[in-house]
Write a structure and sequence with these properties.
globular; about 0% strand; mainly alpha; about 270 residues; 10 helices
């Protein structure tokens, strides 16, 4: 990615085809990982294997590999600066605010799913059940694969590659929105996809304000890692009253972080 290349923005269809290729690669590698995992435990039903913690770890590793391989092929000749994978305008204080912002937004969305009665539906329910009670080496592997590898790979592809290149032809708001929709769609779940899309909008906002995708990488990695550890140690947080209080408090914190980032990192161009 370090060599020089033409500064001409690529056609929009090239970026979208690359996204479709990444989605297909994730599906293919996930199927392969599932078959391999099932071959190691043939006595268990395939669904049980896939929904176990081992299945979750294998799936995260497979999707991360697919994204990185697709990105490596698609971004041949692109500099890190063009992909905005170099430090931007963010300072230490901004990075802390961005991370607190994504954690509080994640908690707000999680509380909302409980209040709407959606916490027992879709992929998020499976993830929570698989992570609950995890300890030792399995928890460490879950943090590495779900937190570091999956979080990092998704940001490198979506905010580093996709949003940065769409931004060369579109205004920031449109580039953020389309990238977030694709990011949500990649999760292929009626509950998880909208949540991912909202997080994608926030991470896209952070990227545009900082002029770098690195803060979004840090936010995503920390968010996934913290979620993994807290779910493993404490399990799902049930109860309407508790989630109502957590949701309200975290929403206030998120709005505060968003306002502080808006003041600290004014827009580089018209949204």
């Amino acid at each position: 990615m370090e060599s020089s290349q033409s500064s001409t923005p690529p056609p929009i269809w090239v970026v979208l085809v690359t996204f479709a290729t990444a989605a297909f690669a994730i599906l293919a590698t996930s199927i392969f990982a599932g078959l391999l995992l099932h071959s190691m435990e043939p006595d268990l039903p395939p669904v049980e294997v896939l929904q176990s913690l081992k299945g979750l770890i294998a799936g995260a590793l497979a999707s991360s590999t697919a994204l990185v391989l697709t990105l490596t092929f698609a971004a041949r000749g692109f500099t890190l600066a063009r992909l905005r994978l170099v430090p931007g305008r963010e300072r230490g204080r901004d990075l802390v605010l961005a991370i607190i912002g994504v954690l509080s937004l994640g908690q707000t969305l999680d509380a909302l799913t409980v209040l709407r009665g959606l916490d027992d539906h879709g992929a998020m329910s499976v993830i929570k059940k698989a992570l609950t009670g995890a300890t030792g080496a399995e928890l460490f592997l879950a943090v590495v694969t779900i937190g570091v590898l999956a979080g990092g790979a998704e940001e490198l592809f979506f905010r580093g590659y996709m949003q940065s290149l769409l931004r060369e032809r579109w205004r920031p708001a449109l580039a953020i929105g389309v990238t977030a929709v694709c990011f949500g769609a990649l999760h292929m779940d009626v509950v998880h996809a909208p949540l991912a899309m909202v997080l994608g909008v926030y991470l896209g906002f952070v990227t545009e304000r900082a002029g770098s995708a690195l803060p979004a990488v840090a936010c995503h990695v920390v968010n996934n890692a913290v979620y993994t550890v807290l779910t493993a140690v404490g399990g799902p947080l049930g109860g309407r009253d508790l989630n109502l209080m957590l949701g309200a408090a975290s929403l206030v914190v998120f709005i505060g972080c968003l306002a502080a980032l808006h003041r600290s990192l004014p827009p580089l161009s018209r949204f």
